[in-house]
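Board work, copied verbatim: Bacterial Pleckstrin homology domain-containing protein
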Amino acid sequence: MIDFQNGSVFKLKQNDEYSARVGDLLLPGEKIIGAFKALRDGVVFTDKRIIAVNVQGITGKKRDFTSLPYSKIVVFSVETAGSFDLDSELEMYFSGLGRVKFEFTGQTNVVEIARLIAGFVL
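↓ predict structure ↓
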């Protein structure tokens, strides 16, 4: 499993590459809402959960898929990009797991992601 306790886990940019990589893990009827990629790792938001993908090894063929259900989020927060700090952040606290933090680069609309999460959590 990914070690979410080591500060930010990913610096993510919108990219649909990981949509295909998690396709076999989706439940019948589960829909992908957004996919993001870092250098090797990625995160996919569906209408039921967040799937974090940790690519391992030199070849990158070994992957760890961590499923983070929205139903286990107890608190979440967003930090939008500023004038000089162009990164935005999403921080969530999961019951039984603790803090999970993702950093987004570029023009990611983290407020829209927060609205999505609020729709599932509240």
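The longest strand covers residues 49-56.
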